[in-house]
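CHAIN AND CONFORMATION:

***
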Amino acid sequence: MNTIDPGALLGPLWMLLAFVGLGWLCARRLAIDPRPIATLLIYIVAPLTFFRGLTLGGPTPGYLLLTLGLFVTASLLAIAVGRLARPFFPAQEAAVLAFSAGTGNTGYFGLPIAMVLLPPEGVTQYLFCLLGITLYEFTVGYYLSARGQFSVRQSLARIVRLPLIYAFLAALLVSGLGLTVPAAVMAGLDVFPSTYTLLGMMIIGMTLGRVSIREFDMRFIGACVVVRYGLWPLLAGIAVLALQATLGISTELAAALLLVGVVPMAANVVVVAMELSIRPEKGAIAVLLTTLAAPLLIPLYLAGLLWLTGLR
């Protein structure tokens, strides 16, 4: 992968934004409540999507190390930002900001882009990076968000109920025992990745359809943008340079890591905030603004980071 054609990215990027617009129309014209859809994503669509991807990808120690590395990085970043945000933001907003700091729209948004940019091996590596981010979202990230209004015990009880953890363990068990998932089951699961992307982007628009101008908070939005489009690309570039100097990683893996660093804010910021009732409207505005900037910024960021890391 020596070059990135911005034209190859613009089609998928604008289609994802069209899904956001479709969600906005559904909320404004059909008065659809996005909360049941958020619950559906968390408890059904996401677990089955990742179970399918993990069983197809075949977890290996190297792939799982990618998952662990991204999980630890996301968790540490969220904890650090959460501590820094507490003196400046109300508890619920600080919780949303902490959650958003550890994640990005690596799934609903980044996975379709990875399929355009990367070869099959790179897509698999990206998927395991994505898994680390997603596990953070539904463990450490979910706990940090819940702690904005729940006790430690209540927060942990909510995490234990999340099925994504069990889907991950089930996929590891299937792979470790050498079991084969029936072809009919896998064929049925084929619809879930597209559903995951469609509903995840639409829920941003649905939430925005209920937003009033009072929810526009430049201080909160600015903090989200600095973390997502300032800190994350910097960390991704440093990580690739460090790994190149020590382990000599492949071009595909380097590109996958860089893509993780340049995607917009996670739609799951809205999904989790909605599930926990912690100011989803403010999160939705920040997610929308970073998503609208993505068609311009992602090609520029990737081109610059590829040049910086010697991959272009």
Observations:
- The chain has one domain: 6-208+219-308.
